[in-house]
Amino acid sequence: MVYFPKAKTVHEKTARFVPSGGWNKQFQDVFDFVENGVGNGCIFSVAGSGKTSAIVESIIRYSENNPCHKILFVAFNVSIKEEGAKRLAGYNNVDILTCHGLGFRALRKSSAWGGPKGNQQFDVQDSSGPYMRALVENELGPEKEKADDRDALMDLVSKAKMTLTDDVSGMAELMERFDIETSYDKKEFIKYALKILDYTKRRPGTTTSQGRGKGEGRVFSKAAITFDDEIWLPIVNNWAVDQYDAVFVDECQDLSKARREIVSMALTDGGRIFIVGDKMQAIYGFACADINAFTEMSEQFNCVSLPLSCSWRCDELIIQEAQQFNPIITARPGAPAGIVDKCQCEELLEKLEPGDVLISRTNAPLVRVFFQLAKQQRKVKFIGRDYGKMLSYRIKCWKRKHDVRVEKGEADGLFTAREVLNYNDEWLDYHSKNKKESDYKVAIDRLKDEWETVAALASDLNASMDSVASVQEILDRCNMFSPEEDKEDKDGKECITLSSTHRFKGLERSHVYMLVDTYAPGDANEEESHLCYVAITRAKNWLSYVIGKPGASKKEEV
């Protein structure tokens, strides 16, 4: 039992995890530095090295040595937060929060809503939810033909918040980096984005129409904010963030500039910070994560480097493959050889079995495999619900655009699957114009993948391509994507799993099939090599390289 002076309750501690062979020297070095060292630490943990166990044990030892210190475990996502909460139950001087949770605490206590004793309720929405749409419509107008511009403006505002961008040149760079297109003059468009940022900073939780005393516009019974605002508002308004004597940061390599800042704000003067991650697994640049976050944060806090280079997940031959990209990773003592082999794409369907995962750099080949397996009445799931929602929303936007064109006499007939393919081509041509592949390879690869995915969703439909029902069938197919965590089949043993590398990060399977032709290691973009490394290290015992692309598209040029 443990009691912390400020805690209101006493909790039973969870049984402490200790490896069957005990903690090896690298773990012991980490624990010794946390318990007895001075300054900050950078724990470089390779794939499968047991970083969560290292963090939990480090926190337990620090807590036992410093029972009156406040400790923060910054979890990268909710699933890690929940695991940490279970393993650290009973340590009442430990808070386990995501970056969003940390920022939201500061937001609730701010004077903008009555301070710590305020009873303001919040409606936390997506970055393209009703609150942000109301603000954007106030600037651009509600006309149907401006739907794409409104979406682009919301996207730019969201990315500006996550990168802490607040100037014209920085906004222009974001538009280039993330391929944000608009029919407006770029300077005028950026002016609207900066205006919304300034307004939401000064009057958070209200629509522009409410703030100006107008009668029109949406009115929210709760203070409406976006998920981005949970982190961004405390930073730009310099609101007080809860202070901690020791801060442990998980998956540091995947933090955006805003996340790094909110974490830094939580460290009390003279406190210690321990950042944990693997810079070779930095693959979320598309989501505003900084590929250099791990190195830059280590330098910012002058951290002592502490490696965890032994992978307890992968067998020996799989580790040898991973060493092409990360030379320091090693296999566990006594690890079996494991299997690394190849197979042709034509053999794939008959080889895949329940419990296996097929992993790809891009989504379009997986969509084709999904339908082939479904036709064979085999149980299969495709991870990536947000991706499906994004494509569904895009198709619905095309429907609105088509209706406007029909009203103006610029288009004839119904919105059918054939029209979906036409708008898909138009979308690709519009977003890839004036882009040289040598300068915009990552953006163009993403465009190609999304184009091919829509084409795959529209192939082999039951309904006629010229019927309205065909569009609904495509939208229904967008709903086939599964959440990242399947509570009914968490281990994936009951079905074949299909996933992009990004979606499968943090997960593992005994047998992984890897569509190698979808990867491009050695490109100028460092993240491409990281993607290969992450894909390889999802395999525990058996890695199969699949040669060729299922149903590869004949359209080769953008």
Q: If you had to describe this structure to a student in words, what would you say it looks like?
A:
The chain has 558 residues and is α/β, with parallel strands linked by helices. It is 43% helix and 15% strand. The protein is built from 21 helices and 17 strands. The protein has a seven-stranded parallel β-sheet. The longest helix is centred in the last third of the chain and has 23 residues, at 385-407. The chain is globular, with a radius of gyration of 25 Å. Mean pLDDT is 87; it is low at 1-8, 208-217 and 553-558.
Summary keywords:
about 550 residues, alpha/beta, seven-stranded parallel sheet, six-stranded parallel sheet, globular, disordered C terminus
Summarize the structure.
By secondary structure, this protein is of the alpha/beta class. Helix content is 43%, strand content 15%. It has helices spanning 25-36, 51-65, 78-87, 99-109, 130-140, 147-163, 168-177, 186-202, 208-211, 227-236, 257-265, 293-300, 316-322, 348-351, 364-375, 385-407, 417-432, 441-457, 468-478, 501-504, 526-536; strands at 41-45, 71-74, 94-97, 122-125, 223-226, 244-249, 267-277, 304-308, 310-311, 330-331, 339-344, 357-360, 380-383, 481-482, 496-500, 509-515, 539-547.
Strand order of the largest sheet: 11-17-16-12-15-13-14
Structural class of the helices, strands and pairings? alpha/beta
What's the total count of β strands?
A: 17
The N- and C-terminal alpha carbons lie at a distance of 64 Å
Proportion in β-strands: 15-25%
Q: Which outline best applies?
A: globular
Low-pLDDT ranges = 1-8, 208-217, 553-558
Helix content: 40-55%
The whole-angstrom Rg is 25 Å
Provide a count of the helices.
Answer: 21
Q: How many strands, which pairing sense, and closed or not: the largest β-sheet?
A: 7 strands, parallel
| Average pLDDT | 87
